[in-house]
Amino acid sequence: MNKRIYLCLAHMSGKEQEFIQEAFDTNWVVPLGPNVNAFEKDLEAFVGENKKVVALSAGTAAIHLGLVQLGVKPGDEVICQSFTFCASANPVVYQGATPVFVDSEADTWNMSPVLLEEAIKDRIEKTGKKPKAIIPVHLYGMPAKIDEICAVAAKYDIPVLEDAAEAFGSEYKGRKCGTFGRFGALSFNGNKMITTSGGGALITPDEEAKQRTMFFATQAREAFPYYQHEEIGYNYRMSNICAGIGRGQMTVLDEHIAHHRHVHALYEEAFRNVEGITLMSNPDERFNANYWLCTILIDKNVTGYDYEELRQALDAKGIETRPLWKPMHLQPVYKNNPCYVDGTSERLFGMGLCLPAGPYVTDDDVRYIVDEILNYKR
Ligand SMILES: Cc1ncc(COP(=O)(O)O)c(C=O)c1O
User: Fold this and answer.
1) Nearest-angstrom CA–CA distance, 369 and 303
2) Which ligand 1 atom sits nearest the alpha carbon of residue 163?
3) Which amino acid residue places its CA nearest to atom 12 of ligand 1?
4) Contacts of 252 (CB under 8 A, 6+ apart)
5) Which whole number is the average pLDDT over 223-247?
6) Does residue 40 register a pLDDT over 60?
7) For residue 86, is it within any domain?
8) Atom of ligand 1 nearest to the CA of 166
9) Are 238 and 348 within one domain?
10) Are residues 216 and 72 in the same domain?
11) Residues 195 and 296 in one domain
12) Which mutation among 7, 85, 110 tests ligand 1's pocket best, with the greatest number of atoms within 8 A of CB?
């Protein structure tokens, strides 16, 4: 095999160009317009629950605007999942607040509800005030134990902002990830379930929150004929061109999700009886991951090699894989932040790899990847 197999490449439906052409023909080449409105309608129809969605320039911007609207300010603390990509936590710092990191549980690899409650109690005891928000993540598209997390959050009356950047289309008990918290963030970056080249969206509870999000995304301009600003805003709106890509992508979203789940099923079959290699799968029927990336854990005591050795060997065979996210509490930039950890994410980081799962990964590719893994050092 001489082609290279990537984790998750962008894949176009073919309709994207039509929407972009329409934008050019009507000269809507700005960060708002008919494609943006139509893309938001598509997103609202998809996530359901009567949510209102605002298309933005990035998933990071969505998390940031969620925090802005939750009133996160300098001196506040926000509880973040440690096991994630840095964009889940960085916007907390943009607000001058402090991320407090909480470890994952082993079933979903997401925020442990038990450690979450411990962290809340301890922060209240240590600082005399409650954390301002909680940001759980649905990592690699696996839903977090979101009802338990929301129950803890409700007990202390702290709002939840879900990071569903990797979990577009994932469901917990039949409900879409990103619709459980007060806000939910989606990402349409180049490697995500669908792409707008770069982009994201904030899922908001109602029309008022949607309008407020758009206000902050367009430099907080007040309703005057001249430019009047009474609050600090941002330039975070999605462009009408990118939204055209998004509209085209929505026509293949279901196909993409089905494909990722199909690839996962192939890996599941192939690794079923392989000692030392464990594929991450839905813990039970409540969870319905989109399997954005398929992930394995390698027990080097059994296999005789670790994830990095395997990563390099697969790379040489034309297969892109990637270590799991390095937990935030282990990142130099966050080394002094409070954290409530029990070793779970550190252990996962030390033994995991992401495998290709995107739209261009064929059944033959999966067979090739699995064979290369099974034949490595055996
Ligand atoms: C877990 C997680 N959160 C947030 C983001 C940020 O999204 P974006 O790249 O669109 O800013 C990403 C992806 O990049 C992500 O994987």
Assistant:
1) 16
2) 3
3) 165
4) 11, 13, 194, 359
5) 97
6) yes
7) yes
8) 16
9) no
10) yes
11) no
12) 85
262 burial level (CB within 10 Å; 0-12, 13-18, 19+): middle
Where does a domain end: 252, 280, 297?
A: 252
Which phi and psi (to 5°) does residue 148 adopt? Answer: -70, -40
Same domain, 314 and 353: yes
Q: Indicate if ligand 1 lies below 6 Å from the C-beta of 161.
A: no
293 phi/psi in degrees, rounded to 5: -125, 140
Is the CB of 87 inside a 6 Å radius of any atom of ligand 1? yes
Write the pLDDT tens digit of every residue in 49-93. Answer: 999 999 999 999 999 999 999 999 999 999 999 999 999 999 999
- The answer to whether the CB of 80 falls within 8 A of the CB of 100 is yes
Is 46 within a domain? yes
* 366 pLDDT above the threshold of 90: yes
The answer to whether residues 193 and 89 belong to one domain is: yes
Whether 117 is in the pocket of ligand 1, judged by its Cβ within 6 Å, is no
Q: Of ligand 1's atoms, which has the minimum distance to the CA of residue 188?
A: 10
Is 139 in contact with 324 (CB distance < 8 Å)? no
Flag whether pLDDT at 291 surpasses 90: yes
Asked if the model's pLDDT at residue 258 lies above 90, the reply is yes
201 touches 164 (CB < 8 A): no
Residue % of the chain over a pLDDT of 90: 97
Q: Are residues 312 and 185 in the same domain?
A: no
C-beta of 59 in contact with ligand 1 (< 6 A): yes
**Residue recorded with tokens 């009567």:** 50
Looking at the fold, whether 271 and 370 belong to one and the same domain comes out as yes
Last residue of a domain, one of 252, 270, 293: 252
Instruction: Note whether 81 and 185 are same-domain residues.
Output: yes
Please count the other Cβ atoms lying within 10 Å of the Cβ belonging to residue 377.
Answer: 9
CATH code for the domain of 208? 3.40.640.10
CATH code for the domain in which residue 284 is found: 3.90.1150.10
Residue 6 in any domain: the answer is: no
- Please state the rounded mean pLDDT for residues 159-182: 98
Ligand 1 midpoint to CA 177 (Å): 15
**What's the total number of domains in the chain?**
2
- Establish whether residue 184 lines the binding site of ligand 1, counting it when its CB lies within 6 angstroms of any ligand atom: no
Give me the domain span that covers residue 161: 16-252
| Nearest ligand 1 atom, CA 198 | 10
* Among the listed residues 310, 343, 345, 311, the one whose alpha carbon sits nearest the alpha carbon of residue 327: 345
In angstroms, what is the span from residue 341 Cα to ligand 1's centroid?
Answer: 23
| pTM for the whole structure | 0.97
Determine the atom of ligand 1 nearest the C-alpha atom of 137: 1
Assess if residue 3 is contained within a domain: no
